[in-house]
């Protein structure tokens, strides 16, 4: 590092990435308060290991921490997860009703399926990377993602009728 302390380096990374990880955490858990808890836990763990993290892999490492915290369920404590509409209206040009329907549908998936769908389709990660993050075989990611998408297809027509 040239003239930049580890703390300054971490602070810069935090500032650049915190919003991205909040959105990812929200997509996983469906609750803004829970997402804040997940991201806070992720950044605390990341900071503890900051010296060991290679700059080229820091995003993947942070994503892995976030996924582990989410799947462990520790972020939930005694909180009941409720899908609430956002506190502010969606920006122009976005279909907020469809987005809220998607969020409700995602809550019907198991945490692992939801994580796979979020990582595959919202984060646009390849099957191999999702498999590595979750510590499962590529075929498991493919089959679980296919089941999750099928479950969403079943719910989708019902949601559009309401």
SS-based class = mainly alpha
Helix content class: 55-70%
Distance between the amino and carboxyl termini: 56 Å
List low-confidence stretches. 77-86, 93-100
User: What percentage of the residues does DSSP assign to strands (E)?
Assistant: under 5%
SSE ordering: HHHHHHH
- Mind telling me the C-alpha Rg? 17 Å
Total count of helical runs of at least 4 residues: 7
The number of distinct β-strands equals 0
Please tell me what the overall shape is: globular
Round the mean pLDDT to the nearest integer and report it: 80
Largest sheet: none
Our count of domains comes out at: 2
What can you tell me about this protein's structure?
The chain folds into two domains: 1-82, no CATH class; 95-162, Orthogonal Bundle (Arc Repressor Mutant, subunit A). By secondary structure, it is mainly alpha-helical. The model is unreliable at 77-86 and 93-100 (pLDDT under 50). It has helices spanning 6-29, 32-48, 58-72, 96-106, 111-122, 127-134, 138-161. Helix 2 (32-48) packs across helix 3, helix 4 (96-106) crosses helix 7 and helix 6 (127-134) packs across helix 7 (138-161). 69% of the residues lie in helices and 0% in strands. It comes from Amycolatopsis xylanica. One of its GO terms (molecular function) is DNA binding.
